[in-house]
Specification:
A hairpin with a 2-residue loop joins strand 1 and strand 2. This protein has a domain of about 45 residues. With about 100 residues, it is mainly alpha-helical. It is built from five helices and two strands, in the order H-E-E-H-H-H-H. Strands 1-2 form a two-stranded antiparallel sheet. The longest helix has 16 residues.
């Protein structure tokens, strides 16, 4: 029996829209592994972990642009949850990061 990983799984598709701007998500395995290691680290506060995860997933330029928006904290939290959901393919639903109900 042969199993095939088709093209739809090989091309990144996750994006997050904030207003009219669309930000691509880096969902490569290497990035997800970095995020996983980061969230397991002891001694870092939640705020610092969230910031570092968003920098990895969005990229430095997009992160800085979003940081300049000075989003309300609820929107920032939802952005973080959407980013984690995007890189895990929604596999965290019901776990540590529930799937957000509304879009930012």
């Amino acid at each position: 029996m042969m199993y095939t990983l088709n093209q739809q799984f090989l091309e990144p598709k996750a994006e997050i829209r904030i207003g009219e701007k669309i930000y691509p998500i880096d969902d490569r395995t290497s990035t997800v592994k970095k995020v996983m290691r980061l969230t397991r680290q002891q001694g870092k506060d939640t705020e610092q972990q969230m910031e570092e995860v968003l920098r990895l997933v969005l990229g430095e330029t997009a992160y800085e642009e979003i940081e300049q928006m000075d989003l309300p904290f609820g929107a920032y939290l939802q952005l973080f949850e959407m980013a984690v959901d995007a890189i895990t393919g929604g596999k965290e639903q019901g776990g540590r990061f529930p799937k957000p109900a509304a879009s930012v």
